[in-house]
């Protein structure tokens, strides 16, 4: 009887062991830990005159990181502001119109031109009757006639100059001056913005990942002078195999296993792409090697704050089936 029971127990153990051997591991997705990387470029080709942080340091939003030499930008700003002030004075002068002294001067010029014209006409009138009697040369008479005509032109010019002053500034001139002033003000504003950008600050809270340049270096325009890892904690960037895509949704709670850590970290799916990608080489697992995958991101809690970027991660989908 005892032998029969022992045989039955052994049979049960073999069945359980066989089932365990035949069971497959739960579906999984692989990836890496990542941070939101913010690259801060050099707004101008100026020397770095101050560095206020170190690589790996935690910084807050708005905290100064480094300072570029503002000397040249300040000079350009001063020149732009002076140009804007000049255009303001030009516009004010045009709006005010001519001074009374200028109008009086124009009237005096007109009176002088009229007097000269009367004298020139009178002289020509005296010489004209003498031509037939042979008392005046033809050349002298021609010069007198030309002088009278020139005096008449001088009168017309003086009268036009006076009318121009009396009519004031044309609206088109004021519009041109307003446009020139707006351009000068915009240039000064642009220089002011550039000057402010030379003091590079952290746009978000995070950790300094890299400072490619050192004190005294002159980075070219657009070159990254600081790289910031933003966010309270890293997130897992994983590649979901195509057979599991239908079972993964935004907001799903999920456990993330990090290489070198015993306990899993609680996470939540925050993004999953609608278009598939080919599985990256480091995420190929067995039958999935030739299949498509969907890029997804899983947020982690503050308990993962100290984890560095780049660590391999593994996510298991225990509720999914192949």
Brief account:
With about 325 residues, this protein is of the alpha+beta class. The chain has five helices and twelve strands.
Structural class: alpha+beta
Q: Quote the beta fraction.
A: 25-35%
How would you sum up the major sheet? 6 strands, antiparallel, barrel
The main sheet orders its strands as 1-7-11-9-8-12
Q: State the share of residues found in helices, binned by percent.
A: 40-55%
Order of helices and strands: HEEEEHHHHEEEEEEEE
Backbone shape: rod-shaped
Helical stretch tally? 5
Tell me the number of strands: 12
Unreliable spans are: 10-22
Radius of gyration: 44 Å
Average pLDDT, rounded to a whole number, is 81
State the end-to-end CA separation: 45 Å
Protein architecture, described:
With 322 residues, the chain is α+β, with helices and mostly antiparallel strands. Helix content is 41%, strand content 25%. The protein contains five helices and twelve strands. The protein has helices at residues 2-22, 71-96, 100-127, 138-167, 171-197, and strands at residues 28-41, 48-51, 58-59, 64-68, 199-201, 206-210, 224-241, 253-258, 265-272, 277-278, 292-300, 312-316. It has a six-stranded antiparallel beta barrel. It has a three-stranded antiparallel sheet with strand order 2-4-5. Strand 8 (253-258) and strand 9 (265-272) form a beta hairpin. The two termini are 45 Å apart. The model is unreliable at 10-22 (pLDDT under 50).
């Amino acid at each position: 009887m005892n032998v029969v029971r022992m045989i039955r127990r052994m049979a049960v153990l073999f069945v359980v062991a066989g089932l365990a051997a035949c069971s497959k591991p739960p579906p999984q997705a692989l990836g890496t830990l990542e941070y939101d990387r913010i690259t801060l470029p050099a707004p101008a080709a100026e020397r770095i005159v101050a560095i206020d942080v170190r690589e790996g340091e935690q910084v807050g939003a708005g905290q100064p990181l480094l300072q570029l030499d503002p000397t040249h930008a300040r000079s350009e700003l001063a020149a732009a502001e002076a140009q804007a002030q000049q255009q303001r004075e030009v516009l004010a002068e045009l709006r005010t119109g001519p001074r009374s002294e200028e109008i009086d001067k124009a009237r005096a010029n007109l009176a002088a031109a009229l007097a000269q014209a009367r004298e020139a006409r009178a002289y020509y009138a005296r010489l004209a009757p003498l031509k037939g009697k042979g008392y005046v040369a033809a050349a002298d008479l021609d010069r007198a006639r030309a002088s009278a005509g020139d005096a008449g032109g001088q009168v017309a010019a003086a009268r036009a100059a006076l009318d121009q002053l009396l009519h004031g500034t044309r609206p088109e001139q004021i519009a041109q001056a307003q446009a020139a002033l707006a351009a000068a003000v915009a240039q000064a504003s642009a220089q002011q913005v550039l000057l402010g950008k030379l003091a590079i600050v952290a746009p978000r809270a995070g950790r300094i990942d890299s400072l490619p340049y050192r004190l005294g270096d002159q980075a070219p325009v657009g070159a990254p002078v600081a790289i910031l890892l933003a966010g309270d904690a890293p997130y897992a960037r994983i590649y979901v195999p195509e057979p599991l895509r239908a079972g993964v949704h935004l907001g799903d709670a999920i456990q993330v296993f990090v290489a070198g850590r015993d306990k899993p970290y609680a996470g939540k799916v925050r993004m999953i792409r609608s278009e598939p990608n080919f599985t990256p080489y480091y995420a190929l697992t067995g039958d999935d090697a030739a299949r498509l995958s969907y890029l997804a991101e899983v947020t982690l809690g503050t308990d993962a704050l100290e984890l560095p970027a780049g660590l391999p991660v593994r996510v298991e989908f225990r509720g999914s089936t192949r």
